[in-house]
Amino acid sequence: MSTLTGIHPLTSAEYHADPAEAPSLSSSIAHLLTSQSPAHAWTAHPRLNPDYAREDKGHYDVGTAAHALFLEGDENVVVVDADSWRTNAAKEAREEARANGKVALLIDTLASVQAMVNAIHRQLEAHGASPPMFEDGKPEQTVIWEESGVMCRARLDWLRDDFTAIDDLKSTSRSANPRSWSRTIFGMGYDVQAAFYARGVEKLTGVAPEFRLCVVETSPPYALSVIGLSPAAMTIGRKKVDVALELWRKCLAADEWPGYDTRIAYAELPPWEESQWLEQEMAAA
Questions:
Q1: What counts of helices (H) and strands (E) characterise the chain?
Q2: For 148-187, where are the E strands, in sequence order?
């Protein structure tokens, strides 16, 4: 068993560099394996791709800053007194913040970020989630475990001290209405994330936690919803994780990372397309 297995308070930089003894599987890499290909997973992995560079937008938006402020408090956010990142002084302040593992935020964005964080607290206090979300636990915990010879890692937004719940904060510039999130959950791989995170905590603690998404809109009134995954959704997520683990194991052992199927793929005719065309033919007759 790896000496690194356990639950650790790593920084974001330490986590994303992959501190495991061997290149490890994360939920995002597992999602790439099951939704795209091993070639995509290899390209996105910091320990495999020598040209890997983590995407950096050069700035932090309201949602990212609110995430840091809500989970870790004022000490993790540096407010830069500038109206843009164009000046050398602003750029230097931003880089210094990043070097210290903190989020740099322009002063004119601060009011929006604080308003969003206040709205999150206010709405969660009135929410019926049990146990209460983002309470009696710790933020940004890294879980590292080994499974059948595969090293795995996950960075949890919030893990309760009794391990019964994992809370994850998502921000969106669109709607946080739960009805519109069913497709988003699967398209973004959050079913894989839920199953993967829960799997890691259970492997280490023996407790099977519930995974809960708190989805918050980034514009007033900063409305939020709390979304869990049904047993059927979690079952599919676990199956995807099983496939990702086996695929990762084989590709890593052989050092072969194929792309999409090399055979011709034939598109099936959707029933709605056929029906629409037949109606058009009948109308033109």
A1: 10, 8
A2: 150-160, 165-172
Backbone φ and ψ of 193, nearest 5°: -60, -45
| Three-class SS of 93-144 | HHHHHHHCCCEEEEHHHHHHHHHHHHHHHHHHHCCCCCCCCCCCEEEEEEEE
Cα–Cα dist 159/179, whole Å: 26
The pLDDT score that the predictor gives to residue 58 is 44
DSSP 256: -
What is the C-alpha separation between 234 and 194, in angstroms, rounded?
Answer: 7
- The Cα 285–Cα 280 span in angstroms is 9
**Could you tell me if 100 and 108 are in contact, meaning their C-beta atoms sit under 8 angstroms apart?**
no
Condensed to tens digits (0 to 9), the pLDDT of residues 31-83 reads 999 999 999 999 999 999 999 887 655 445 788 889 989 998 877 788 888 88
C-alpha neighbours within 13 Å on the C-beta side of residue 40: 13
- The token duo for 39 is 């070639």
pLDDT of residue 56: 55
Q: Whole-angstrom Cα distance, residue 243 to residue 139?
A: 29
CB 214 within 8 A of CB 260: no
Block residue for tokens 């290899």 = 42
Strands (E), 161-209: 165-172
CATH architecture of 6-42+127-284: Alpha-Beta Complex (3.90)
Question: Domain limits of the chain?
Answer: 6-42+127-284
Give 212's Cβ-side CA count (13 Å radius). 24
Count CB-CB contacts under 10 A for residue 215. 24
CB distance 68 to 76 below 8 Å = yes
DSSP state of 199: H
Contact 140, 102 (CB under 8 A): no
